[in-house]
Specification:
Chain lengths: 294, 792, 160
Amino acid sequence: MERFTYVRAQDVQQAVALLNEPGLRSRVLAGGTDLMLLARQDRHLCDRVVDISLIPELHRIAREDGLVTIGAAASFSEVLESPIVRDTAPVLSEACAQVGAVQVRNMGTIGGNVANAAACADSLPALVCLDAAARVQTPAGSQEWPVSELVLRPNRTQIPDGGLLLSFSYRVPHPEARSVFLKLGRRNAMAISRLTVAALGHLDGQGRIAEARLVPGAATPQIRRFTAVEDMLVGQQPDAGLWQEAGRLAASEMVRISGRRWSSEYKEPALAALVARALSTVFASTTSLQGADR
Amino acid sequence: MDEFTYVGKPATRVDALEKVLGTAKYASDLRLPGMLYARCLRSLLPHARIARVDVRPALAVPGVLAAITSDDFVDYGRFGFPVADMYMLAHERVRYVGDAIAAVAAETAEALEAGLAALLVELEPLPPIFDPEEALVPGAFVVGERPWDAPDTPRGNLLVAYKVRGGDPDALLATSEVKVERDYTTMHQEHAYIETEGALAMPWPDGTGVTVYASCQSPYLNRDNLCRVLGLDPANVRAIQPQVGGAFGGKDDQMYQTSAQVAKLALLTGRPVRMTFSREESIIFSYKRDAMRMHIQLGADRSGKLRASKIRAVVDSGAYAAITPFTAWRSSIHAMGPYRYDACHVDTDVAYTNNGYAGAFRGFGNTEVCAGIEQAMDDMAEVLGMDPIDLRLANCLRPGDVTPHGQRLGDDVALADCLKQVRRDSDWDRKRAEYSRERAAASAPAAGQFRRGIGAAAVFHGMSLGAEGADFALCNIVVNDDCSLSLASGLTDYGTGSRTVFTLIAAETLGLRPGRIHMPRPDTDIPVNSGPTVASRATVLGGNAVRVAAGRLDSLLTRAAADLFGCEPVQVLRQGELYVGPSEEPAPFEDVATHARRLGYQLSAQGRWSAPENHWSFESGSGKPYFAYHFGAQVAEVLVDTGTGKIDVTGIWAAHNTGKVIFPQGAVGQLCGGIALGLGYALMERVDFDKGYIQATNFDEYLIPTALDVPEIVARFVEKPFKDGPFGAKNIGEPGMVPAAPAILNAVFHATGQRINHLPATLERMLLGHDLRPEGSSRMCKLGLQATAQMA
Amino acid sequence: MKIAFELNGSPVSVDAPADISLLQLLRDHLHLTGTKEGCGVGECGACSVLLDGRLVNSCLTLAPQAGGRHVTTIEGIRGPGGGPDDLQEAFIDYGAVQCGFCTPGMVLAGEALLAAHPRPTRRQIREAIAGNLCRCTGYQQIVDAIEATASKRSEAKIHG
């Protein structure tokens, strides 16, 4: 006996209708990399899956009037291979490039990653760093949220029942902006992120920090820009000591936001180091050694 | 000088083609019409009395055709060697989470699930023990075998104790100019073969017997166990080994259980029965490498000459003895490392607990103690202010030396050559100096600084079973009518390459192309029982038996050729596959074989080879534990992120004294594979038991190295010939793994000044100096076993 | 439900439950056992297949998702004569095969890489097979085999 049935949606309208059909618990199926794991543990997960992975408009990556839009069903591979994303937001390309391994990147989608909202989801810090907005379609119409507000905490988003993530969009950052995504795992591939840091910024004409965006991941229940650290950085001259200070501040912010946990003893110094390294990469004229060069 | 045609030359693995095409069949690929599916109900308690098991409700489920318990086996299915404390299905007590209580066979997966859920099982919890030292405290609740078999062995939870005694280390340690005294701890390790376990039993149509295809290392032991518990003669039980997707020591004892379960179910139902495993069930129920705590004392002169060693080890054997009496014995023999001492004592105590159970795993006790002693040697080098390779060169065993056990070594010892080789290959001296300078120059670890380090480790590994027992191998060889040859060995190949090694040895001995020689799947109907395929014994034991059999056949063929040419056998020469007589007229092999048959010769031969004598006195703790030893050395280079604690291994150089390498590609593969296992052991593999529940039940949390974690490896062989090996060969399977972990940890010490004496070296241990983990739970075990039976 | 797709270049149609994985469909319903199950959770890559030319874990792919698409399994990787192709030959020649259980997945990972990147560095090869766990080989000779194949194919292009 089947645990659930399968239907493939041809377009967004049909998908939304299927997801909201009364009397059936329907779930979105995109890449399947999260859903299949959930189904393995819970045989009563849903009555039906609605496959949205082949809807063309949900794969579209485009740049129009300074706004980049990425379809929610774009796979990590599609995002990291996109020249538009690479040119405007290396932080997002790098985040997608470090997810799992090639198989997971080919199937897993950026929308699925956000909707599943794992504490360690890699796309989240990058999207929040870009101040990305998420568009969600429901029978009532479409709504937009900043990603930082859409994801409330691990495994909990504001996506309404029966809602379908359509796309993410971000304003193209300053032409001189540089960005980076650092991932720390227990091994070099197929690793759950222990900590991540997404950082972006640029200097002004006098070489001072004009803009700084800093988003740690797998560090706090909600993924947010660490504005206390950003405010401290703006207007300052790049300096190794500054990065250390920013790192320490980020670590204490993390504890202030999350409270002290069993992992804090490790995450405080590790986050401080990663933040310092990320800022140094974004603002320094030469990139620092980020790991073993083979 | 190039004297060989096939041995030591580029050759391809004999069964590689079917593997690359995807046509090779492993246990879970086998299916038969009418096949039933089987699964066990497993304990979710670490220690409990089985108060009641009622299979009748399961039998009432439509589609369920049989359900069994220990009552369905002779003597309750008791087995185990050297200690028979295990049962094919748990009897009276369950002793670890995952212990099988009953097995069900059904026609569909749904019926099977329903059948398992319907079983009525009542377990009464008993006090569990999770710490081996606690288990050994007098008066501790006995979780091990009860009552104890051997009357004069200590009672309680002490499974076995071993000692090595040479001289008086206490006196020498007291007067040593330089001393090191440290604790080193290793964890359990999961084999993580990519193919999980599986077995298919086929009852014979005439009802008199059963054939079992099992993903098992040692089909003959499997067959013997099956005979005993099923009450059948060897003529009525056949065990065949299909392709096996890796074993590393992990597919013996538990495979005997799985095989017996499916065999019994098949005999009861008259249908084929197959049992396969999800990764979760495999990790939960299968045995692991033991965990060990070592307390090591070393004493030396200021000049760097080692004087004394004293090692005390406690081994966590878990719920059952399995092979741990043998691994612990090997541990005690190897605990002091390949060095000369004036005095050495080793004491190893093995405890029963309820942490899963421990069994064979590549290295077999040496992996654990080498991780201890090689780090201790490094600590000694540090205290002496001496280069670690120099310290080893000053003290390592050399030809003719007497070991701490009192054994005089032969001239096949090449450890110093291995150390010098890796020193050269890795550019050790320059890097050692450069990385030391970097560390000294840097300010107190500034966050985000990367440190480089390079470290070394040496290994000796007694070959084959040692004084554990009878050590011999058998081989059959026959020329078929079509002039192909069939070669059968009692020692099997589960990825190790032994089939190719045997084929090359036979080819070389007979002067025939390897392509002519075929090996059938290991099959107990072929009477070549050679004991277990373990202990890296295949090349020497199996290879020598092949050489003997092939040599006998070769004599027959030569005599036939001599008769054909009308000359003396000694006048028959070979040119490739051709036989050439004094008249220089060559005869192809086919003609010689045909002539031999015409003469009435039986073109088949059996070969038997026994290992030279060993002897060990358990009372005096001395003797000649192994007839010879493998030696090797490895150097590892690491890059440590002192900001996060992440350790990357950036290079490994290995040199092993393997004697003559028969199958070069295979030897390189075994060495690289072993190193990857050691890397995982050092850095990322951890089996955490929390109140007896394994925490990581799949590969998302039990981490093994990926292609991005293992560096480029430089693998070298020091081929100093070994007179007792086929064509001078030794072995490589296990010893390739053993020194990798300590080499890496020694490199980490060089990079950071931090000694990580508790494996694995996780992010937290590196950064904080201690481990950090969330509270454990039974959740993953419960999910993984999805046992929905009503348990009171 | 009926699931119809192109498998190794030929159309197939199977009646199967909607809630099974593509891996189960291939092994249990189509009886193609070359694709292996190593973990069931997309960590080991032994179940790797090509879906529209992209390497994916078939254990995490719902079977109906293959509908109307192109699936390539190890059984579809063959040379012109029906024997091993050049990459499979290289796996044999370079010692990249021991127990063989990860091999089908590794071969597919290699094919997928070389189709997209004809001259990968050793680092890129390692990245391409990072989702395929091997417990036997330590990866060294697998990287050798893929690298050698890339080299030969490039030379053939230049000279052929």
